[in-house]
Request: fold
Amino acid sequence: MTISESDRLHSQLSRFEDMFPGYRTEIVEGAIVMSPVKPHHNETIWEVRNRLQAQLPSEWWFISDVAVPFDDDNEFCPDLAVIPKAERDKNLSAYPPDLVELAIEVVSPSSVRNDYEVKDRAYARRGIPHYLIFDPYKAHCLTLWNPGPDGYRGRDVIPYGDTVTVESGLGKLTVDTTDLPVDPGVSRP
Reply:
């Protein structure tokens, strides 16, 4: 898919986002999926970004909730993705998945299957080296690496309170999860 095709698809999604503020919109398995955003979701994204920011090499940076088209049925908008800064500086509305070195999702009640299953397979099939799933409803982070055709072959569950470590092509990245927000209905480990 070319970027111009991606821009066209994302502009279609943008109309839904404008009509339904407070919802995140993606195309997942051919369906338009709208997920309500709660404060813990956004706070987790900001905290993870802040904790990783100083660790990134200067030639890499973040995109957040920007379209990453995978195929005709899947156009994801990762909560955070790390791509080359030179590409990010182009300020596009969509980026190809082969630019993504690290994808990060924060689970919301409506995104559980998409984050844990659909994106696991899609991100791995496209060769995204590392995928992190922060889950404020389970108070843990699932780290995934070693992408394969059916999903990631490496995975660890890190309970909130411990440090997430990713050994990547960007170097060793860590996220202290001690004070990440947890849904009020969940007790911390």
